[in-house]
Amino acid sequence: MASGPQTSKRIFLVDAPRTYSQVFNKLFLAHPDLGHIFHPMICAMYGRERVGLNLKHCEAAEEAGKALSLKTGMTESLEEAAKRMEKYILQIEEQCKIPWIKDHTCCHIRRDIAISVAKSPTYPDLDLRSSHNPTVFSDELFNTFTPVILIRHPILIIRSCYRTQASVFHLEAHGEDFKLMTTLQYSKMWFDAKRGDGQVPIVVDAEDVVHNTEATISLLCSHLGIDANGAQYTWDPAPREEWPDDPIMQGFFVDMLNSSSVKRGKQAVQNALDIDNELDMWKVEFGGDVAAVLKKRVEEEMPVYNFLKGFKVDIKAQ
């Protein structure tokens, strides 16, 4: 894609569902130098080319996907959604602002890759890296993006996704669509492709956003070359009448809609995470069979999480 009045970069927030991405995005929502494009590919994710058509799941999950597509009018093709996003990018650059694009990887990853990963019974070798563009975007467009890869501990991703979305999407812990939504492998493919092109991809751990918010955001802004003073750390909760009617959207956004700042506990959650302790709690909450499958999913995701974590923006190293 040819560019308009070229700004220095096009920032792409690369994340998976339940990585604290909505609150993270909120921190930059009022930045005067940024123009925001929010989930540009989601209409195609649930549209007529939705990847779920090629994944194994129960009949109830299939019906839930159809109902969402019909209710929300999500009918775009991947090509249509990508072209619309390109149009928005040019409009933002014409205003001399930097595009800030936020999208879940499961919405824009190439469909053959998405299906292959979701159906794979084993985790791929982390040493098998690819420098190829893993997205549905053209190589020309993909090459213009500066990614910010947001990661979170797999226990937190998988627990949150199953707890908030299983009943709405009728997800099964062993289902291929649940793996599609909870894997960090697509984020690593972004990392590999950009590193293969000579970039040093920026990785941010959600726990640092929660427990070292201002220091982490300030350092990230320095890496991106944008003014840290443009970030916001407090805001007004959304009035109830402005909440989405759709229970699916409420499930994804309720924490952010209720929030007025970043919520944090007394200590970093990650310091207390233990999969065996989680398993005991999951057995009580979800039942033994589901708990065992969720534990297996966590164990599958830990290698890629630990790999990406090794490259994270680290305030302690400064």
What does this structure look like?
The chain is α/β, with parallel strands linked by helices. Helices cover 49% and strands 9% of the residues. The protein has 15 helices and five strands. A five-stranded parallel beta sheet has the order 2-3-1-4-5, sandwiched between helices. The longest helix has 22 residues, at 288-309. The two termini are 37 Å apart. 38% of the residues are buried. The model is unreliable at 1-7 (pLDDT under 50). This is P-loop containing nucleoside triphosphate hydrolase protein. InterPro entries: P-loop_NTPase, Pyrrolopyrazine_biosynth_F.
Compressed to H and E, one letter per element, the order equals: EHEHHHEHHHEHHHEHHHHH
Write the CATH architecture name: 3-Layer(aba) Sandwich
Return the structural class: alpha/beta
Q: What is the number of strand segments?
A: 5
State Rg.
19 Å
How do the strands of the widest beta sheet line up side by side? 2-3-1-4-5
Count of domains: 1
**What does the overall shape look like?**
globular
Determine and state the CATH class.
Alpha Beta
Strand content: 5-15%
Distance between the termini: 37 Å
How large is the count of helical segments?
A: 15
Largest sheet: 5 strands, parallel
- Assign the CATH topology: Rossmann fold
